[in-house]
Amino acid sequence: MAVVLSAQATDVSVNQATRALFAEANTPGAMLAMGEARLREHIRRIGLFKTKAANLIACCRMLLDKHGGQVPREREALEALPGVGRKTANVILNTAFGEPVIAVDTHVFRLSNRTRIAPGKNVLEVEKRLMRLIPEEYLQHAHHWLILHGRYVCQARKPRCYECAIADLCEYPKRLRPNE
């Protein structure tokens, strides 16, 4: 549920909302019983909270009706859940089930294109290139490392190239120095 809420939201807002939400409802059945209106109150600080509340209620219903209240391990079943797309499915497969997959978020997409590590016009192209490039033994954790690097070093507006561990390999033409 937290992964569904995290789409187009900050980790801070999701963590704040889910702390109280999961204390009250930590199963699909409990969340469904809570109802959409009460769920909205819990997630109001998260962007797109009305749509997300509707999706989570529908998702809980589907989890109960089709999956015995359990999160499925198959990509197709995950992507059939309301509010779950490929990136969310990849995050769940990777973090919950230990599958060696790459979740391409805005940070991974930017970093992959900016550095030319795995350029692509869309997230699926980038994902496929990264899956081919990254050695199997690193796949389990690679998207976490890439997200953190994109979030804290290779930032969108002011990349911190002077702190970058791979600056010497980077093909970004506008590499910045500390005071730029």
Q: How would you describe this protein?
A:
This protein is mainly alpha-helical and 180 residues long. The protein folds into two domains: 2-95, Orthogonal Bundle (Endonuclease III, domain 1), CATH 1.10.340.30; 106-163, Orthogonal Bundle (Endonuclease Iii, domain 2), CATH 1.10.1670. It is built from ten helices and no strands. α4 packs across α5 and α8 crosses α10 (136-152). The chain is globular.
Shape: globular
User: Residue-averaged pLDDT, rounded?
Assistant: 92
- Broad CATH class of the largest domain: Mainly Alpha
| CA distance, first residue to last residue | 40 Å
**Main beta-sheet strand count, sense and barrel state:** none
Question: What kind of oligomer do you see?
Answer: single chain
What structural class do helix, strand and pairing data support?
Answer: mainly alpha
Q: How large, in whole angstroms, is the Cα Rg?
A: 18 Å
Q: Give the SSE order as H and E letters.
A: HHHHHHHHHH
In terms of DSSP E residues, the strand content is under 5%
The CATH architecture category of the largest domain equals: Orthogonal Bundle
- How many structural domains can be distinguished in the coordinates? 2
Please report the total strand number as a whole number: 0
Which regions are unreliable across 5 or more consecutive residues at pLDDT < 50? none
Task: Provide a count of the helices.
Answer: 10
Going by CATH, the homologous superfamily of the largest domain would be Hypothetical protein, domain 2
CATH fold-level name of the largest domain: Endonuclease III, domain 1
Helix content: 55-70%
